[in-house]
Amino acid sequence: DGGITQSPKYLFRKEGQNVTLSCEQNLNHDAMYWYRQDPGQGLRLIYYSQIVNDFQKGDIAEGYSVSREKKESFPLTVTSAQKNPTAFYLCASRKEAEAFFGQGTRLTVV
Amino acid sequence: RKEVEQDPGPFNVPEGATVAFNCTYSNSASQSFFWYRQDCRKEPKLLMSVYSSGNEDGRFTAQLNRASQYISLLIRDSKLSDSATYLCVVNWAGTASKLTFGTGTRLQVTL
Question: Which of A4, A40, A49, B6 is least enclosed by beta carbons within 10 angstroms?
């Protein structure tokens, strides 16, 4: 079945550590996105990529980094520079109108 | 002013009721519009696109008012299973595939 997969589902990070969230899609979509969701704030765009080896900052890119070496993969690294990383992270891919989301990763800093 | 604004709710309605949500957007160059549904602690899923002439899908009707820069979602004959958060999503013209989400409106349908 085609779809978009995020892993892990839950992730715990110690302060000062970098962590990488995985996002893989087999939908053959060019565009991929990372969003962060906090209670009461909806989805905020972190980074997006419209083509392999190219990506753009979204509204809240500080403290995050991404890569797009393959069409299928768009990993997000949450660096120690991100001061408040605890959130629900959603990856999406899109071809035309509809965006398909992965099931999300809940990141908690302990 | 936020780019996309929604009333967060919650809207508490009895089964069978009709409920409507509005969403306003600030950029008049916005190109395309969508309603997504998000269940608690789950990912958003597309409910319906919103077309200029308005469109209907079963009990759901979406409308666009470009002059006033808002879109609406009407749900008729509400079901318990309609309980969720409804997200308004706007695609800006000129920024290709960048989607901007509203904060969502929570709907709770009760017996």
Answer: A40
